[in-house]
Specification:
Pfam families: baeRF_family3. InterPro entries: Bact_RF_family3. The chain is built from twelve helices and 17 strands. The protein has helices at about 5-15, 35-55, 60-65, 65-75, 75-80, 165, 200-220, 235-245, 265-280, 280-295, 305-315, 350-360; strands at about 20-25, 85-90, 95-100, 110, 130-135, 140-145, 150-155, 175-185, 190-195, 230-235, 255, 300, 315-320, 330, 350, 365-370, 380-385. Strand 8 and strand 9 (about 190-195) form a beta hairpin. The longest helix has 22 residues, at about 200-220.
């Protein structure tokens, strides 16, 4: 489940070979309720069938048009897999797209001459790329999160992956304990590795310090100083030891102070996500700041008619609208007022979606965001280029 790339969003936004069926369905997360999703999709497809027939399509043609959606509706294995939070189906003559969404999309059915794409722009301009480093004396794990994927990365050979990687290279005057860590080699001897139980407190402290110093320095060479943010998960003392030696600016100052020893990949990701807003919404924050800077000028508007005209003319730099909000009506001519409806009536167009599509196709940035992130309490806001 990934956020759609702009190479994927662009042709969907520009497609105008109708009829176009757009279906958005929020998914239940409880396994016991997956059957409800299949039933709801069936209901939406039945409704779409009626709307297509109103447009003049025959029964056979309509069934073929919606065939891809019916296959998903009747596929039990599709509904059993997870953990998608939403489903998007886009169907048009000769074209069928199905997207799993990693957020709860509002339920929507649209049958128009263009696709309903607004919900696909939710998070489209967020940068979710970061690295996560999980450190404890027993293990070192490095993960990459990008475009919804969270993957453990292989570390270079020169990066120690646990405390014992360097313990054999540390010399102490006192005798040290060893324990076997591998089967007997060709010479019949067991491979031995230093065991810290026989060390004094001071020796253990030095061993730990050496480990984090080597780890920090090698990772500094491996990770790009100008690369994505790095989130560190480690116990309090180990946080300090690593940060003492790691100098790259990509390390976030906020800390997740807990031992990752017993934490799985998904648990680590859930710990990191609250910190991601610091950097993922940077583009939105800059756009909102720019919007507020120009409040009270002709560069700002919440008038639907003005925004629709400006979107078609390529004048919009930034557009803001809440996820799940839509107004229906006829696209107005220049100087004409538009009468809007909360539900579509005959020959209505999804007006906010129209503004999103035209803003994007002219190089503007449509932000589909949560209500609380809106610069003002309006269904549509625009910052004009001129």
């Amino acid at each position: 489940m990934k956020t759609l790339s702009h190479d994927e969003l662009k042709p969907l936004s520009e497609w105008e070979q109708g009829p176009c069926v757009s279906i958005y369905l929020p998914r239940h997360q409880a396994v016991s309720e997956h059957g409800k999703d299949a039933i709801q999709l069936r209901n939406l497809l039945d409704e779409a069938e009626g709307l297509l027939q109103q447009r003049g399509l025959g029964a056979v043609e309509t069934r073929k048009f919606l065939e891809a959606g019916r296959q998903i509706q009747n596929d039990a294995t599709f509904w059993e897999r997870g953990p998608a939070q939403g489903l998007c189906l886009l169907l048009a003559p000769g074209l069928s797209h199905q997207y799993d969404l990693n957020y709860q999309c509002p339920q929507m059915l649209s049958v128009e001459d263009a696709f309903y794409v607004s919900p696909l722009f939710y998070k489209a301009f967020e940068n979710d790329h970061f690295h996560l480093l999980a450190i404890c004396p027993k293990s070192v794990r490095l993960f990459r999160h990008q475009n919804g994927d969270f993957t453990q990365l292989e570390l270079p050979d020169n990066v120690p992956t646990n405390l014992e990687d360097i313990s054999a290279e540390t010399q102490f005057e006192e005798s040290l304990q060893y324990h076997s860590t591998s089967p007997a080699g060709p010479g019949g001897e067991n491979a031995g590795m230093l065991h810290g139980h026989g060390l004094t407190k001071e020796q253990n402290e030095k061993l730990l310090s050496d480990f984090f110093q080597l780890l920090a320095k090698q990772l500094e060479k491996h990770l790009d100083n100008d690369g994505p943010p790095l989130i560190l998960v480690a116990a309090e003392k180990q946080q300090s030891l690593f940060r003492k030696h790691y100098q790259s600016k990509n390390l976030l100052s906020d800390r997740i102070q807990t031992s990752p020893d017993r934490l799985g990949d998904q648990e680590l990701l859930e710990l990191a996500l609250p910190l991601v807003n610091q950097f993922s919404k940077e583009s939105l924050h800059k756009a909102v700041k720019q919007y507020r800077k120009h409040l009270g000028t002709e560069r700002i508007s919440h008038q639907l008619e003005e925004i629709l005209q400006a979107a078609g003319a390529g004048r919009i730099e930034s557009l803001f609208s809440p996820l799940g909000k839509e107004l229906w009506g006829k696209v107005p001519n220049d100087g004409e007022l538009v009468k809007t409806h909360s539900q579509p009536e005959a020959e209505d167009t999804a007006l906010l979606n129209c503004a999103v599509r035209h803003t994007y196709r002219h190089g503007g940035t449509p932000y589909i965001i949560n209500n609380e992130d809106m610069p003002e309490d309006q269904p549509l806001l625009a910052y004009f280029r001129w």
